[in-house]
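During the no-cost extension, the postdoctoral fellow (Dr. R.K.) reprocessed legacy sequence entries with the updated structure-token encoder. One reprocessed record is reproduced below for audit purposes.
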Amino acid sequence: VSQLQLAWAFASSLVISGAETHRTTVVRHLSSSAADEASADELFASAGWPAIKKDLDELPVFTVANEKGQPLQYSVGGTAMPFFFVDLDAAREELLKAKADSTISDMKGMEGIDIIPFPLGDAFMMMETGKAVVVPSQKAIEDAGAPKDVSPVGQQVPLFSCMEITQEGRDGKPLLPLFFVKQEVQDAIDEALEIDGGDDTNKDEFAVTVLSLQ
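Re-encoded structure tokens follow.
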């Protein structure tokens, strides 16, 4: 069950926390099928999508781009597309690799390459229509259960939550906070328990749940 599906099921929009961040163990097919594209079109045409996209766009992902803001393209199944990194440090590493590779840094149009932020909602739309790859952080996919040192490229982007914790949205409806970083949801659980008086007897009810951005 995806985070977006959960958001709709609870008749609420979503809240994602953790801007400079971190991804689940299931390998994502990078080439979209016709069914996937039809599902994405239905999603983006739904009445609830604009509000969800607005929330997503409050968070950046990061890509390597030239001075005109044009992202570096990678070959995925024979198709050129940008990579958007959830983790800023991973984007920095990618920038260093690109600068060290003369076939990229000396390429016409790649002058002044640097890291630029990009709205998560737009990156999500590109990903779901097979036009981009969103790369989660190494730490997050391992926290979600992936084997240590598995490549994050091609992995689903994990989101961490606790079903026992909600917050009030702008319209007064309850929202389920979602986090890119597992430690952040654990901090939220600890805070909730402290507000309840520091009683750990019901701590087991506050379990961390792993969802997926896809």
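Helices lie at 3-9, 34-45, 49-56, 88-100, 102-105, 120-128, 138-143, 182-195. Residues 1-34 have pLDDT under 50 and may be disordered. The remaining legacy entries will be reprocessed before the final report is submitted.
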